[in-house]
C-alpha cells in the first residue's frame, strides 16, 4: 500500500510505502519512506529505509525558517566575538602605547641635539642636551621607571651657541666624556666625565673663524684605539677630522 501526504507550507511530498496487509509501518518488512521537496533546491529527493518498527506513523514537518534562524544566530555570535576581540585590542593598545613625558628647559633654550649613554654606571640610559639659545648643556640621569632627573647644567660660554653633541671615552679611562661643537665661537669642547653623571676639566679646540661647526661624531679612524673626531663645518662647506694620538 502506498500513500502520499502533502504539506503546503514546505511543498514537500512524503510517500510512505508499506505492506498492503498491515496498518503499521514495520521496517522489518522493508517499508520505505520517500520525501520529496519541490520548493527547496537543496533537497530534491530522499529515500531512506528505517531499521525499526514504527507503531504510529508520524509526519515530521520540515520548516525552512529554522535554517534562516540558524544563520541569524551564527551572525550574532560572530558579531559578539568580533566586538570582544576589538575591545581587548583597544585596551591593550591603550595600556601599552608610549606615554608622552615633557621635561621643560629654560625659556628660549632652543635645544638642537641630544646624546644618550649611561653616564653614572647604573645600567640606565641618561641624556645630554645641547641648548643653542641658552648656551649650555643639560644632563638628565635616568632611572628604572623611565623617569629622568635634571642633575647638572654646564655653560658653554656666552654667545657660544652649541649645536652638536656626542659621547665617547676620549682618554681611555673607561668613563664616558662629552664632545660638543659651538657654532657661535667655532669651537670643539671636550668635557671629561667622572663616572657619576658629572663632567668637568673642559678643553676646547678652535675650528676656524666663522666656520660654524654644526655636528660632531667620533670613531676609531686610524686604528690606534684612540677615539678621533669628525666635525661638519656649516660655513666652510667641509668636514674636519681631529686625530687623537695620546
TrEMBL record:
InterPro entries per record: FG-GAP, Integrin_alpha_N
Keyword Oxidoreductase: no
UniProt keywords, alphabetically: Membrane, Signal, Transmembrane, Transmembrane helix
TM helices/strands, residue ranges: 71-98, 137-155
Pfam families (alphabetical): FG-GAP_3
Domain of life: Eukaryota
Protein name per its UniProtKB record: VCBS repeat-containing protein
Amino acid at each position: 500500500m502506498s500513500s502520499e501526504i502533502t504539506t503546503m507550507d514546505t511543498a514537500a511530498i512524503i510517500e510512505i510505502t508499506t505492506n498492503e496487509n498491515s496498518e503499521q509501518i514495520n521496517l522489518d518488512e522493508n517499508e520505505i519512506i520517500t520525501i520529496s521537496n519541490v520548493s527547496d533546491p537543496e533537497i530534491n529527493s530522499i529515500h531512506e529505509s528505517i531499521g525499526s518498527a514504527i507503531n504510529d506513523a508520524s509526519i515530521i514537518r520540515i520548516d525552512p525558517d529554522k535554517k534562516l534562524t540558524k544563520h541569524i544566530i551564527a551572525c550574532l555570535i560572530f558579531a559578539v566575538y568580533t566586538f570582544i576581540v576589538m575591545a581587548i585590542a583597544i585596551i591593550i593598545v591603550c595600556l601599552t602605547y608610549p606615554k608622552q613625558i615633557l621635561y621643560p628647559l629654560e625659556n628660549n633654550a632652543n635645544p638642537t641635539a641630544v646624546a644618550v649613554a649611561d653616564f653614572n654606571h647604573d645600567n640606565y640610559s641618561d641624556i645630554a642636551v645641547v641648548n643653542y639659545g641658552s648656551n649650555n648643556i643639560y644632563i638628565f640621569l635616568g632611572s628604572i621607571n623611565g623617569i629622568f632627573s635634571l642633575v647638572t647644567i654646564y655653560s658653554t660660554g656666552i654667545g657660544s651657541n652649541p649645536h652638536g653633541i656626542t659621547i665617547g671615552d676620549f682618554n681611555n679611562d673607561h668613563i664616558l666624556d662629552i664632545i660638543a661643537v659651538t657654532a657661535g665661537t667655532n669651537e670643539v669642547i671636550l668635557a671629561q666625565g667622572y663616572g657619576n653623571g658629572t663632567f668637568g676639566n673642559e678643553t676646547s679646540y678652535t675650528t676656524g673663524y666663522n666656520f660654524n661647526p654644526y655636528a660632531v661624531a667620533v670613531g676609531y679612524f686610524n686604528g690606534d684605539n684612540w677615539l678621533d673626531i669628525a666635525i661638519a663645518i656649516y660655513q666652510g662647506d667641509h668636514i674636519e677630522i681631529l686625530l687623537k694620538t695620546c
